[in-house]
Amino acid sequence: MSRYVAMGSSMAAGPGIRPRATGAPRGCGRSAHNYPHLVAQRLNLDLVDVTCSGATTAHVLNDRQRGAPPQIDALDGSETLVTITIGGNDVGYIPLLMAAALLGSARRLVPGRRGTRDRRVSRLLPVIGSLLDPAAREQALDHSGESLRRVGAAVRRRAPQARVVFVDYLTVLPPAGTSAAPLADTDAELGRYVATRLEELTAAAAAATGCMIVRAGAASREHHAWSANPWTAGATWPLPRRPAPFHPNAAGMAAVADLIVQSTR
Question: Could you give the CA distance from residue 197 to residue 200 in angstroms, rounded to a whole number?
Answer without folding.
Answer: 5
